[in-house]
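WP5 quarterly update. Target: Structural maintenance of chromosomes protein. Source organism: Kalanchoe fedtschenkoi. Length: 1201 aa.
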Amino acid sequence: MHIKQVIIEGFKSYKEQIATEPFSPKINCVVGANGSGKTNFFHAIRFVLSDLFQNLRSEDRHSLLHEGAGHQVLSAFVEIVFDNSDNRIPVDKEEVHLRRTIGLKKDEYFLDGKHITKTEVMNLLESAGFSRSNPYYVVQQGKIASLTLMKDSERLDLLKEIGGTRVYEERRRESLKILQETGNKRRQIIQVVQYLDERLKELDEEKEELRKYQQLDKQRKSLEYAIYDKELHDANQKLTEVEEARTKVSEKSAQMYNSVLDAHEKSKDLEKTFKELTKELQVLNKEREAVEKRRTEAMKKSSQLELDNKDLEERISLNKRAKEDALKQLKILQKEIEDSNKDLAKITLHYDEKVKEEHDISREIVEREKKLSILYQKQGRATQFSDEAARDKWLQKEINELEGVLSSNLAQEQKLKEEIQQLNTELERQDLFIVDRRKDIAALESHISKSREGFLVLKARRDELQDERKSLWAKESALNADLDKLKAEVVKAEKSLDHATPGDIRRGLNSVRRICREYHISGVFGPVFELLECDDKFFTAVEVTAGNSLFHVVVETDEISTQIIRHLNAQKGGRVTFIPLNRVINPRVMYPQSSDVIPLLKKLRFSSNFEPAFGQVFGRTVICRDLDVATRVARNDGLDCITLEGDQVSKKGGMTGGFYDSRRSKLKYMNIIRQNTKLINSKEEELDKVRYQLHEIDRKITELVTEQQKSDAELAHDRSVLEQYKQDIANANKQKQSISNALGRKEKMLSDAQSQIEQLRTSIAMKRAEMGTELIDHLTTEEKDLLSRLNPEITQLKERLASCRMERLEIETRKAELETNLSTNLVRRKLELEAIISSDDIEAWQADAVVKKQELKDAKSLVSELTQQFRRLSDSIEDRVKQLRDIKKEKNNLKNLEENYERTLQDEAKELEQLLSKRNLLLAKQEEYSKKIRELGPLSADAFETYKRKGIKELYRMLHKCNEQLQQFSHVNKKALDQYVNFTEQREELQRRQAEIDAGDEKIKELITVLDQRKDESIERTFKGVVKHFKDVFAELVPGGHGTLTMLKKKDGHHGDEDDEDQPREVDTGGRVEKYIGVKVKVSFTGQGETQSMKQLSGGQKTVVALTLIFAIQRCDPAPFYLFDEIDAALDPQYRTAVGNMIRRQADLENTQFITTTFRPELVKVADKIYAVSHKNRVSHVSVVSETRALEFIEQDQSNN
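Structure tokens (predicted):
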């Protein structure tokens, strides 16, 4: 650790802020002319680190501020930056900034920018190695000179300071002071004891006469007590008679007053009931109007539903009849279709035969015509062709053409077969499609039936939920009405409680609640009356006992109450008394064991956490059966007592009682609030449950409606799909018919194509047969015969063909008529009838009918319910009107009762005034005799019974005789006996205190002996260390010389020198106050001859010895750095060199920092860093210079001087 940097501003000659360059951790030297500010630089460092500038007055602080030209400096600071890399200062930083700021009215310290106290700074420096008992880590100007002039005793004081004996001396002085004070007290006690002994001798002689006087005085007091007691008893008896008379009048008046109060309260209740009934009547009228309106609407809806239901039933009936007719017609139609199909089958068969016959005839005609043609051609070939080759060529050409036609016909045949195959496949596909669609229709009809059933189930469930919701709505309405009523009662009770609470306390409690809510303060439990519960019969006793303590607020800790009180004061929010549970102690009370006495605390119900608070308020109070029991318990057991009527007897004897209006009980109001709040909470919980159930039912109804809508949509979709399926079957049948017709046409075309192919093949065969034959121009006989037969045959065949074609056309016409009738009339009508029969409209209408019937039933039920509700509301309205009439009548009766009470009250007031006057006279007499009895003072036990049976006159005669005898002892000291006892006790007490003082003196003397011994040990230990280092340092500074220190002791009452002793002698335990008287210096600069004392040395030698002593002290208690201010001023060059070399060695070996000022070159030469202090316009500046520049400055300064 070392000083790294010094920053100064406004301190003495340093006006502007200067910050030195970082110091060397070893040797730093400061040079400068006289008056430049070197010493102020050292003072600035000491200003922060030492006790030199402490407890400064205003003028002292002003003297530390810069006083140059220009603006006035109002504050200054010095900041020292420490290198703390070794953590010698207990701060977790490698660089520590310590600043002290001073002004005309301030003096502050800062550590790394944070404010700290002077004590904390000194403790921090001491923990870093700066001992307060050893201030020699800073050696300022004049310190060495003062050491050279020190006496032996002063050197001893220096060692004591270094050894830390100051604390022992301070404690020794305190002990001696205490010893002196106790000696003075002992002398005073002895004097007082001597006086008491003399006074006790005198009092012993006066005791006998005093005993005789006391006997007569006792008799006088007994007689006076008997007289006063009889007079008091007589007054009490008369007072009791007056009180009984007053009590009778008061009881009568109280009874009437209570009756009037009851009447008044009853009148208020009746007024409240009247208003409530009026309000209820208005509500009931509105409800009746609403119910009547709803009933009218329900009746309209019921009528509409009846009409809708009838209409639906009629449609269902008509639909049923239509289905029955359709079934009958369908049977007839099916029979007709069956007959038509049979006829069509026969005609089709006959038609096919005719078509075949026509086809065969046509083929025969064609064959014969071809044969005829061939014969004609053959007959004319000879004329047509010139030779066989030409004919064959022509035939070949014909054959080729025919083969081309044949191949075309064959291709057409193949194409027709493929098309026929495709049409057959399409027919099969249509048949399969129709079968699938019929299956889909069956499944869909089943699904529609189930969906309709599910829809009805959902409808029934929704109706159930709606009924349940209606009941819950009614329950919700009832709960809301109950809640409104309970909340109104709570508000009324809270208002009554506010009126019963003192205004300032009420405002304070409201402020406490608001403060806790705004500032989120927990641990506030509330006032006492909110935290307790008890039976109604104890309300009066509890309220009278607690008084305003009922409004005390129970809190967890006193810190919470302090916080709230601060807010109350700031907001002017009233006054509140708090009971902090951490401060209150539950009193331990022993209750009497009696059936007439009950501890009040046991009748209260409260949380065990609040037991200390309730014990504090109610723990010392018991409930007694009556005032007699209360009086006895209060006197014998020292407890506060109270009756159930509120009459109190305190443990000090005071009695409080009278009428207490329990109808304005705060606990009653609180009980109403608490019970109604519980009911409100339970009702609100029940209401929340009902609302939750309503929410769930609404959700379920919504889900059911959604499911119904979804089911309805699905049902409509299924019906649409069903119709589509039926339409698909109809379309498929039409397509099938179309395909069948196309198939017939294709088959006919195929047959024609096959006939043509056959003819072409025959023609080709004939032409091939003709090729290669002989070309002749005439036919053969056979051919001629064939030619002659062919023409008649062809004619005959054509006639047959015409006849056959006519028959086919007739049959075809008949067949077309049957097919048209079937497809256009019969089949279409059958589909229509089947559609009517299979129609599910009746099922939908039946489902709608069921729904409508249920709705009609619900509507009729609602009408019936609303009618009953209307009747109930009408009955309730009539009942309320009747109650209002009765209330008006009763209010008139109560008003008459109050008027009668006013008249009676005037008569009773006169009677009570007379009784009160008589009572006051008796009370004055009672007070007079009670006062006389009290003035008698304490009496013996027999004084109460001795003269109890004697008459009043005889007692007065005996009293007169006793007073005459007492006059003989008028000179007696009446306080002798008391004085004797008092003085005896005082003497014993003083003797006890004297013994305690003597014991204390012995302990203080033992402490002084121990302190002396420890001080001597500390001096010896410090002396040994300093002597060792003194020898080493002197040998380093004066080569060849030697030196030592010698302790001087007090011997036999005179001073003597111990020239040959290097070590101290054994500690003398003979009880002497001072053992050592000084420290003597013995040195030899040559190492030869005798040693010399300080007086025998020259000035330079004394300076060397003083420096040796300083270095020895520093080595004994080392510091992290040292500040030297011109320590080499009075040294010879050889010693300056020796001092510089020693500082160099110590800085290198022990890593110690030195900051020195000098006017000599020796310290400059060993310095690691040199600073120059300059002065201009009364302002100092610090800068770093080289060694050469510093030596030149020193040389110049020495030449000038």
